[in-house]
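Input structure tokens:
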């Protein structure tokens, strides 16, 4: 008959082994993903009062693009660019709404002026835990710059 110490030792090793196996399974499992998690986006990002956005001035016409994750971009000649909209713009889900209530649908050609800003400089405004890191981090793909729009209208 085994001693109590030996039995306690065997049980301790067995429990530790089970805990280790469970930990390895949990760490190796793919992250849970909610149904439709690639839809919806973080809302329409608009300029934050009091923040300064610096970069190269831009004035362009480009089609409005709605990404599969719900983020709006402009399809510029240099590629799709994440847009920070002027205050007063909102989203109706699959379209942008200007302050006058005009719906700007995906595919519409927009006339935009503002600045093209390096992505790193945008993140530096509030730091790695700020609003732009969360919103832009969700929407930005391989862009190294963003467009901060001061004016947006449907092109004639």
């Amino acid at each position: 008959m085994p001693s109590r110490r030996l039995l306690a030792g065997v049980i301790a090793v067995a429990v530790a082994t089970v805990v280790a196996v469970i930990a390895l399974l949990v760490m190796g499992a793919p992250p849970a993903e909610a149904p439709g998690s690639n839809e919806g986006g973080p809302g329409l990002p608009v300029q934050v009062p009091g923040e300064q956005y610096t970069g190269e001035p831009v004035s362009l016409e480009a089609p409005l693009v709605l990404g599969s994750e719900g983020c709006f971009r402009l399809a510029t000649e240099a590629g799709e660019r994440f847009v920070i909209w002027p205050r007063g713009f909102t989203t109706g889900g699959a379209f942008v709404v200007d302050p006058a209530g005009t719906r700007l649908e995906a595919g519409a050609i927009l006339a935009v002026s503002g600045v093209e800003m390096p992505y790193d400089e945008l993140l530096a405004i509030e730091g790695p835990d700020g609003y732009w890191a969360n919103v832009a981090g969700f929407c930005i793909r391989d862009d190294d710059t963003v467009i901060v729009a001061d004016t947006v209208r449907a092109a004639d």
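The domain at 56-154 is CATH 2.40.50 (OB fold (Dihydrolipoamide Acetyltransferase, E2P)). Strands lie at 56-66, 72-76, 79-84, 90-91, 95-97, 103-105, 109-118, 145-154.
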